[in-house]
Amino acid sequence: MKSESGAPIQGVLFDIDDTLxxxxxxxxxxxxxxxxxxxxxxxxxxxxxxxxxxxxxxxGYYDEYLAGKLSFVEQRLHxxxxxxxxxxxxxxxxxxxxxxxxxxxxxxPLHFEPxxxxxxxxxxxxxxxxxxxAVSNNVHDYQRAKLDKAGLQRVAALVGIDxxxxxxxxxxxxxxxARRLGTxxxxxLYVGDNPVLDAEGADAAGLVGVWLDRRGGQxxxxxxxxxxxxTDVLRIMQGIR
Length: 241
Fold this sequence. Notes:
Elements: E1 11-14, H1 23-34, H2 44-56, H3 61-66, H4 72-84, H5 94-107, H6 118-128, E2 132-135, H7 140-149, E3 157-159, H8 161-164, H9 171-181, E4 188-192, H10 195-204, E5 208-212, E6 226-227, H11 232-237
Parallel strand pairs: 1-2, 1-4, 2-3, 4-5, 5-6
């Protein structure tokens, strides 16, 4: 693929959660494990609703964490309380909250896995000699451990929010990713599952933003480049838009 200037793309940066690593599935399996006793009465449909409430975070508690209003554990517990409100008799407070969080933290990494399309894409980038890395809206060490647990140790360049003290969509965090790859921002792809934080944010920072719409069918009028599988990154790099 060529950049807006017509020059070839030099490198690729990826978001991590729900782009490289299937975090939504990992969360769902963990919630089922941790709630096996207290939520044993849920029907299959209620389990699906419960998991969706937690993973989709409709109240934006993770955004409050990024803004410094909640700790990482606090945002997780707020999401759990909201999701469980309609289903659980025992509230997640005090020792119950501590036990729940400890169990969740222990189980979640056991389910970190890459999507099926990740390894083939990274293999092809390696074959072509194109450097790649990740930029994430979480701290470096937590995301480093996540990538390693998912078998993605090869994603060596990693920028977390603690690297530059800001989160996406601040331009500085994307630019730090390009700096670490040694690529020009305007010749660097940034691929992620969030149309605003990933595609639009990267574009605004001067990179080439690509929205990975894994669910398909989502509507947005402002994103310029949309794909439905990571494999399409390779098609984009071959000049197919």
